[in-house]
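INFO batch 0412 | record 1 of 1 | parsing
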Amino acid sequence: MQVQNAAVIGHPIGHTMSPFIHRRLFQLEGIPFTYQVRDVPDLPAAMEDLRRLDCFNITIPHKSAILPFLDELEEKARRFGSVNTVQRVGEKLIGYTTDGPGCRKALENHGVSLGGRVLLLGNGGAARALAFELAQQASGSSLTIACREGSLEKARRLGEELLDYARFLGDGNFSVRAVTYPQLESEKASYDLLLNATSVGMFPHGGVSPVSEEVVKSCTAVFDAVYNPAETQLLRLANEQGAVVVGGMEMLVYQAVAAHEIWYGTSFQQQDLELLCTDAQKEMARLFPGTEAGKGE
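INFO prediction complete | emitting tokens
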């Protein structure tokens, strides 16, 4: 195979783990490659060069801005309105979203299904990715979206989109509702899975949890999209309650794995991916020694 030219684009893009993760995946595949980090302040001006790449990843702030420049979109990415993975096929650029599949795979590795009674914290971009993956994968599941009072209407609109997507897929048993955090705290409901898609607990503002210990006690499994620190306060509370816990670095790795599956149809050895998750956490500590990861958290 000829050398594959790949990159990650964003602006600013100084603190990214994508090069470490994707370069390791290319090496595991035995595919000759270059993988660049491209700071792209002006996306339209960069598109001519980007079209010369074989594939690329996208991070903030271009995940939605890239859409008008793509020739095709997978259905989920179209409905989600965001793309983090692009493949060039001939002269066409095709966009995908792999955040949802990355989360699902990370959960499965811990014996946790993305389904059942699910509590989702947040309604931003990351939350949308996880919610649409749930609607696609878990027939008959019930989703509760918890958000701030000022975001309740936005969360309700997301719920309507999810119900529409579930109906499109033929799932008439999927249910969704939106609540505020005070409502959540007062309900005393129980959940199979809690998904934190907020930035609460991220370095340098660690030591706080987006929900109370009482809510955490009501959840059988807890996933936190935050990957720095490796053990957030939310995961610490969940550990203390005996819940199954899954950290954000695994999602980061497995969304990259999903991209390579799209690009090259690759199947990786599980032990290689587990080692990559561990090494990626260590690499973050090495690259950014001032973070919680650098302090051994």
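INFO post-check: Residues 293-297 have pLDDT under 50 and may be disordered.
INFO record closed
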